[in-house]
Amino acid sequence: MRRRPALAFGIALVIGCRGTPPGSAQDAGIARMVDSLRPAVERAAGLSFKGPTRSALKTREEVRKYLLDKLGKEYPPARQEGIEAVYRLLGLIPDTLDLKALLLDLLTEQVAGFYDPESRTFYGVQGVDPTQLRLVLAHELVHALQDQYLPLDELMKRRGDADEQMATQAVLEGEATIASILVFLPNPELIRQPGFWQLAREQVRSSSAAMKVFNSAPLALREELLFPYLGGAEFMRWWDSAHAGHPLPTRAELPRSTEQILHPDRYAAGDQPVPVRFSDSTSDVLFEDTLGELDIQLLATVLRGGGEVVTTTPVGWGGDRFRIYRTPAGPALVWYIVWDDATSAARFLGGPGARLSARERRGYRTVAEAVAGARRPTVRVVIAPAGWDRRISIRE
After folding, report:
1. Both 214 and 307 in a single domain?
2. Strand 394-395 and strand 317-325: pairing?
3. Is residue 13 assigned to a domain?
4. Do 391 and 297 fall into the same domain?
5. Whole-angstrom Cα distance, residue 240 to residue 233?
């Protein structure tokens, strides 16, 4: 199951998560490879398969055609327009970027195989080197195993809280990353040795950088592609140490925010996101969702011109919600962020908030300000055409 290479609110698509993709019937070679790896995957993941795993082959042309069709269905024009607007207005992607074309290229670049939760089938790509296919298959078989304990297709169809969806994806990809490494390690204890995981992270980043399309993508896209695998693996290493004998969270135990993934102590303390809801009419709303701590960390990095996202220190995020409004002069962004304390709110206003306000966008005004009278420390960010002035409020 490939990650939605994506912005936190879910740009792109889990490869093959809708419908029945084209491809040949069960292929004998892939079927033998699946059967040979299943026992090792069970041992590495600490879970047992409850049934068989189907498999098939498809051509690269079939993969690209299928993904193009699914991107169109998953992201109809209004949704795609809203997604592009929030990231353009925040400066995370350039105005000239053809996001749909880039996502398709990112999805298909060097793809070797994937697991489809809806048809519960692993699809291998024809012509892929068998060694590479075996490595990919080990990872994707973990997803097939997870799908027998969690409703993967249902979880990935959720809309409206992309930060929570990213957190769920991080659990799934994090566990699959660790388990697939363990399948091929001669000594499983090596994964617990000092320095091992740092080396693994460097190798993942190095191999990703060698991919032409990936390496040319904006920082926000690159980091969100890697986050479920690397950030998710770090969280699942913590989970394994804190929940011995319980290798996979139940649906009720899944983290609800990227803050909890980045800082497991927040998960352990039961620090849940603050629900933020708009109270005005939806008549002019093009798109609405959450961003979350990961995207705030990304935004801070991009605005200060950094090339590496450092997420070790919590930013004090409590919850957030944004809307993109249609206006005659262009899209308008209204974003409310609730903070844990006044210090965290002030830090945002003095850093990313100030840098956002200092950015010039022709015909637009940008305001980042504290919300007076809010129950918790709250910041409002407005990036809108100069003549647009609408009173908008929220409820917690």
Report:
1. no
2. unpaired
3. no
4. yes
5. 10
DSSP strand E in the chain: where?
A: 54-58, 113-116, 121-125, 277-278, 285-289, 317-325, 332-339, 364-370, 378-385, 394-395
User: How many other CB atoms are found less than 10 A from the CB of residue 278?
Assistant: 17
- Please tell me whether residue 121 adopts helix, strand or coil conformation: strand
**CA distances (Å), 61 to each of 64, 65, 69, 138, in order?**
5, 6, 12, 24
Q: Do 104 and 249 share a domain, yes or no?
A: yes
Counted domains in the chain: 2
Residue that has been written with the tokens 């590496």 in this structure: 308
Please name the amino acid found at residue 238. Answer: W
Residues 251 and 330 in one domain: no
CB contact at 8 A, 17 and 156? yes
Q: Is residue 6 part of a domain?
A: no
Range of the domain at 332: 277-395
Encoded tokens for 85: 């607007």
Q: What is the pLDDT of residues 137-161, one digit of tens each?
A: 999 999 999 999 999 989 987 888 9
And the tokens for 172? Answer: 């799934």
| Count of alpha carbons within 13 angstroms of residue 64, beta-carbon side | 12
Distances (CA, A) of 263 to 54, 60, 236, 351, 393: 37, 39, 12, 21, 30
Rounded-to-integer distance, Cα 67 and Cα 331, Å? 28
Sheet strand arrangement including 113-116: 54-58, 121-125, 113-116
Nearest-CA neighbor of 224 among 210, 240, 208, 235?
208
Q: CB 74: neighbour CB atoms within 10 A? A: 19
pLDDT at 377 over 50: yes
Q: Indicate the length of the chain as a whole number.
A: 396
Which among 242, 268, 294 is the end of a domain?
268
Distance of alpha carbon 273 from alpha carbon 275, whole angstroms: 6
According to the model, what pLDDT value does residue 4 have? 38
Confidence of residue 21 (pLDDT cuts 50, 70, 90): very low
Where does a domain end: 237, 268, 299?
268
